Each structure stands twice: as structure tokens, then as C-alpha cells.
UniProtKB/TrEMBL annotation:
It comes from Thiorhodovibrio winogradskyi. Residues 301-323 are annotated as: Disordered. Residues 305-320 have a biased composition (Polar residues). SUPFAM superfamilies: Sec-C motif (SSF103642). It comes from the Bacteria. This is Preprotein translocase subunit SecA.
Length: 359
């Protein structure tokens, strides 16, 4: 049992979505942002008071409208106090609720957020998604776009070769005049356990033509040739080529819609128009830009700052080992999509077919 400075007591039981506040039972309801492109890690918690099972309907109706609502920031592991008075009942109960959560419970809520956002991502039609793209970089520099850069809660594929496990980060050319069927697949290997200092390491990058089923390897000078052959053979399987084809088609559809929304009327070719601090956030969350994504660096920028690595290397690795280790993918069977956001990368190695995208 937790007690706040204001002497509110709370007993928390996430397993059956209940808690007891000052002796009164409450049902816990959690809601997430319905926007599939929003990267926030916030959940809205509603605590609805409940009467005992044998109480009459009149007793329950008296409690209706007395629910307590507050927002938890899963990234910072705390109560979101924006627009919330700390002296209010919601502020006081929200604070003690956040303090009562163990790290395992925070991770449980985080996993639930990811599962819900993944379902939202999969079920939302493309025409209802207002995704943002770096059009200047795409059209002028033939930049390949990470799928999770655009839809941060999309599926992350796993690949197991012998006893080695890889997560796949896929990137595509979405240029309006390009018809290539290439996917750049970065293989990120998981080693050791979540307590290991470097549990995620960069693996080989594969340029795969998912239609012709041809592939080239990059950044694998020291890799075992047998492993490379097995990776290529696995990625050429129908289940993977169909997966990459569908992801590529979805990104291209979202990019075409982005171009129509932003440039069809103005004829402008600049990709990023300035966003004022008080303007609606481009991510579509409904919040003002200054209260949403203004101070949120991209995943690659955070990773470069935290791991102090070469920024060019970060074009391949969206996450530092420390970030991915915290997300505990082996335990939960998923990556923290809000951190593994994908990255836009320019890939034009000698002989690689992505050169077609720049012609």
C-alpha cells in the first residue's frame, strides 16, 4: 500500500485492472493515442469508483461522474503534470499511482501501449493517416526511408539463424518517379541477456530486390560466410519478400498522399515548411507543437548523443545498445517502437541496385 503526503492510500492490482483508493474500489481503464504516426509514450488512465457486488444500482449511479483521470508518461516513468493541478484530487491520486508502479509494471504498461498502437497501425487505412516525409531529401538525395520512421509502431520482424537472433530494420525508396523493388534490410543481432552491457550489435546490411529475389551484402567484411548465405536465403523466402513488398507499397502510398496534401495546390517543392511553436503538431496528436514534438529529437539523434558514436554510423543503427537493452525485447517479444523509430538513410554503395532510385 502506498500513501501520499496528502494521506491518500492506494492499493494497486494491475493484473485484474483494479485499485483501491482510500478504501474505495476502482476499475482501471487505459487509453492510448489513436494516431498511428504519433510517437508519444503517454497513456490516459481513468479510475472509475465501483460499489460492492451486492450494492444497488442507485449506489452505483451516485458514483458515476466521479472518475479520476490523469496521464502517465511511460518514457519518463512519471505523472504528466501539464495542465494538471498538483493540489487536485486527480493530481494527488495520479502522483501516488505513478509512485506505486514498479519497474515491471511500467514495462507491462509499455508493452500494452505497444500492442495497442501496433493494432491501430495495422488497422488504420492509409487514407486516414497523415504521415510526414523529408521530401527534399527523398527527391534530391534519393534518401531511403525507414518504415518505422514513418509508422513507429509497425511490426518488427525477427530472423533466427541457428542459435542467433536478429531484428530487421527495413528501408525503402519512395521517390515519386521510381519503380524499384529494393529493400535495405539492416540486421541487428541480439546477444547475451538484457543485463549484458552490449546486447544489441550491428549486423550485416542486405540490399534485397524482393521481386527478383536478388541480394547484395554491405558491411560484413568479418562476418561468417555461412551466416551471410543463411541470412540471404531466409530473406528470399516468400514470407519475407511478401512482407517487404507490402511495406514498400504502403510507404509509397503514404508518400503520394503526403505530396498531394502539401504540394499539389502550392506547387512548392520544399519538404519542410516551418512550424510555429503554437501551431498544431505535424505528428497529428492534436497538441501544440511546443507541447509535443518540439523538444523530442529523432531516434538517431538521441542514439548518437547517448552512445557518443560517429553520426554516420547511426544512419544504420537507430538505437544504442543501452536503449534496446532497456526495452527487453527477448522478454516481451517486441522492441520499443517509440525508440526504434527507423531512420532515413542514403545508401548508394558501388554496384548496389538502389542507384536506380536516383536516376
Amino acid at each position: 500500500m502506498m500513501t501520499s503526503p496528502e494521506n491518500h492510500s492506494l492499493i494497486l492490482n494491475l493484473s485484474d485492472s483494479t485499485c483501491t483508493i482510500d478504501g474505495q474500489g476502482h476499475l482501471i481503464e487505459v487509453r492510448v493515442c489513436p494516431n498511428p504516426v504519433c510517437r508519444c509514450q503517454e497513456i490516459r488512465v481513468s479510475l472509475s469508483p465501483q460499489t460492492p457486488d451486492k450494492a444497488c444500482a442507485t449506489d452505483q449511479s451516485a458514483l458515476d461522474g466521479q472518475e479520476i483521470q490523469f496521464t502517465l508518461d511511460l518514457a519518463r516513468r512519471c505523472l504528466d503534470t501539464r495542465g494538471l493541478s498538483k493540489a487536485s484530487r486527480a493530481g494527488q491520486v495520479g502522483a501516488i499511482f505513478a509512485d506505486a508502479l514498479s519497474e515491471d509494471q511500467w514495462q507491462e504498461l509499455e508493452a500494452d501501449l505497444h500492442a495497442r498502437k501496433r493494432k491501430i497501425t495495422d488497422e488504420t487505412p492509409n487514407e486516414k493517416i497523415q504521415a510526414e516525409f523529408p521530401a527534399d531529401e527523398i527527391e534530391q538525395r534519393s534518401m531511403m526511408v525507414g518504415f518505422l520512421k514513418i509508422l513507429p509502431y509497425g511490426e518488427i520482424k525477427q530472423l533466427k539463424i541457428d542459435d542467433r537472433l536478429f531484428y530487421l530494420s527495413d528501408h525503402y525508396c519512395v521517390k515519386a518517379d521510381c519503380s524499384c523493388t529494393d529493400a535495405l534490410v539492416d540486421c541487428m543481432e541480439i546477444i547475451g541477456t538484457r543485463d549484458t552491457e552490449d546486447s544489441i550489435i550491428n549486423g550485416p546490411a542486405v540490399f534485397l530486390d524482393y521481386r527478383k529475389k536478388t541480394a547484395r551484402i554491405e558491411n560484413a567484411a568479418d562476418a561468417d560466410q555461412h551466416l551471410l548465405d543463411e541470412i540471404i536465403a531466409a530473406l528470399k523466402a516468400k514470407s519475407f519478400t511478401n512482407f517487404f513488398s507490402a511495406r514498400h507499397a504502403r510507404l509509397k502510398a503514404l508518400y503520394r498522399d503526403y505530396l498531394r496534401r502539401n504540394f499539389s495546390r502550392t506547387g512548392r517543392n520544399d519538404a519542410h515548411q516551418s512550424v510555429g511553436r503554437n501551431d498544431p503538431c505535424p505528428c497529428g496528436s492534436g497538441k501544440k507543437y511546443k507541447k509535443c514534438c518540439l523538444d523530442k529529437p529523432a531516434a538517431s539523434e538521441r542514439s548518437a548523443l547517448r552512445s557518443n558514436q560517429n553520426p554516420n554510423a547511426q544512419q544504420r543503427s537507430e538505437n544504442s545498445p543501452a536503449e534496446l537493452r532497456r526495452l527487453d525485447p527477448a522478454r516481451r517479444g517486441l522492441l520499443g517502437h517509440s525508440l526504434w523509430q527507423g531512420v532515413c538513410v542514403t545508401r548508394q554503395p558501388t554496384g548496389a541496385r538502389v542507384g536506380r532510385a536516383s536516376r
